[in-house]
Amino acid sequence: MKRWLLLLMIPTMALASTSPKDIERDINHYGVNGFSTNIPNSEWMEVLSNISLGKSEWIALAPKLALVIDREQAGELNDALFYAIEPNAKDTLSILSIMDKHNYRYQQGTDVTCPSKVLLSEDAIKQHYNNTRIALLNVGPQGADCLWLLEGIVEEIKSDKAHNE
């Protein structure tokens, strides 16, 4: 009996999850003056998590989100896009190039996302840099600007470390 009950609950649990279409609907419904204050924190965290994981359909929401988010959310979106480069450099760079062509209130594109200083341990920074560097090299010339910016921030971190020792 418990197995049947569990099987009946699975579709219900699946429906509880937020989809990119749900977020687009919320963007259209609340718009510039209400999205940032009306999206539940749990849904916003789900959006950021899915972008960070490099899921294409979520990354594609970034330009629409950039129109309706507040300053704090813009920083969080920037961090999510930074992390999305490693698992999905191609789609992330494509979206960043779209964002580069617009003037968003708080959000920027490649110039802000690629050299992002995310607070990580030194080992995590090295690991993330190495993995992201490979991902950017694998996309070819499209990744050159982002790679250059990322390498610049790594050199800055090295310089700061040497200066503080």
Describe it for me?
- The protein has helices at 2-16, 20-30, 35-38, 41-52, 56-59, 62-68, 71-85, 89-100, 110-113, 122-138, 144-164.
- By secondary structure, the chain is an all-alpha fold.
- Helix 4 (41-52) runs parallel beside helix 7 (71-85) and helix 10 (122-138) runs antiparallel to helix 11 (144-164).
- It is globular.
- The termini are far apart.
- Residues 1-15 have low confidence and may be disordered.
User: How much of the polypeptide forms β-strand, as a percent range?
Assistant: under 5%
Look at the structure and give the mean pLDDT.
Answer: 84
SSE-based structural type: mainly alpha
Low-confidence stretches: 1-15
How would you describe the oligomerization state of the chains in this entry? single chain
**Number of distinct helices:** 11
Output the radius of gyration. 18 Å
What general outline do the C-alpha atoms trace?
Answer: globular
* SSE sequence, one letter per element: HHHHHHHHHHH
In this structure, how is the largest beta sheet organized?
A: none
Give the tally of β-strands: 0
The percent of residues in helical segments reads over 70%
Distance, first to last CA: 65 Å
